[in-house]
Amino acid sequence: MPVVTDIEDLRRLSKKRIAKAIFDYVDRGSYSEATLRANRADLESLTLRQRVAIDVDRRSTRTTMIGQEVAMPVALAPTGLTGLNWADGEMLAARAAERFGVPFCLSTMSICSIEDVAAAVTRPFWFQLYVMRDRGFAASLIERAKAAGCSALVLTLDLQVQGQRHQDIKNGLAVPPRLTLGSFFDILSKPSWTFNVLTGRRKSFGNLEGRIPNADSLTTLSQWIAGQFDPTLSWKDVEWVRGLWGGKIILKGILDAEDAKIAASTGADAIVVSNHGGRQLDGASSSIRALPEVADAVGSSIEVLFDGGIRSGQDVLKALALGAKGTMIGRAFLYGLGAMGERGVTRTLEIIRNELDVTMALCGLRDVRDATPAILKKPL
């Protein structure tokens, strides 16, 4: 096993191991990928202030996210098709997160179902919901999440229509999926990945299996999903979801100060500053550039979480300095999962926590909750 020192090491290992179509689904963005690149470039442009001769003994990365005690301010974000990176991937990632002491959020578009994940862990996890045209189906997902004991519902608001991801189409990962000559030979060249995925509990969208009429294959389910993203989604639907759910709710996909104020007025517990990982509106602001304005707009009226481009503990600390209470990682943990399965997810979290701890020390911080813009040399 090669020595893994950072998230990029895991990315390279994942790229070598898994099918190109699945890796590109994780790694790439929409259209020209300008927003995807900006998420990383704008984080990297932030300069941390190095401080010296400050007592930084007995440091702590522990804090809370929506009232939940966490080992560090990082949650595993909801990601589609996770179980195609490694068999039973959602279950493995949820177990790794539970052992580490951070939240795991299951996607509506997961391979393993809500019930599969609930059976794999001993503590509650979060569930992410898309409000589809079929409101009855959306309501049934909420009821299943409640029955599974999920502790928070993450409502994604920025997928009313789907942005085009050029590489997915070129790879044949379209809706419905199609097998190209290139993807066929690529799969043949990845026998360990192919065998691994075939041993998984499920090979399709677990939350949708058996729920859609005449849906007996991944292709049929994908066709149904393609027609289910709903451009009529509005703030009224947020109220409808809150009424059905009755528990803690997080609104994901906020990138504008006015939207943040509206979100705060709904009574939600938290918002996630996010541009869907650069997979939706290409040309939109990077998440980190939008964060200060959103955080200023809502003040202490609602908890602000951050998602978009995090690859290190330094990135986590920068987001906290600019107003986030916690962060979410998607690609970073998927690289670990694709590279090494459950051990890879744990390694991802170890890397980020170790980097966060060292960065705090060198910035003169003992408690992660004390991060403010003062630790940045030149805030955005």
Description:
It is a single chain. It contains 16 helices and ten strands. It has helices at 7-17, 20-27, 34-45, 89-100, 114-120, 135-147, 166-170, 181-188, 191-198, 218-226, 235-245, 257-265, 287-298, 313-321, 331-340, 342-362; strands at 63-65, 68-70, 74-76, 105-106, 126-129, 152-156, 248-254, 270-273, 303-307, 326-329. Helix 1 packs across helix 15 and helix 15 (331-340) crosses helix 16. A hairpin with a 2-residue loop joins strand 1 and strand 2 (68-70). The strands form two sheets. It has an eight-stranded parallel beta sheet. Strands 1-2 form a two-stranded antiparallel sheet. The model has no long low-confidence stretch (mean pLDDT 93). With 380 residues, it is an alpha/beta fold.
Q: Biggest sheet: strands, sense, closure?
A: 8 strands, parallel
Distance between the first and last residues' Cα: 40 Å
Strand order of the largest sheet: 3-10-9-8-7-6-5-4
Average pLDDT reading: 93
Low-confidence stretches: none
Going by helix content, strand content and strand pairing, the class is alpha/beta
Q: Percent range for helical residues?
A: 40-55%
Overall geometric form = globular
- What percent of residues are in strands? 5-15%
Count, helices: 16
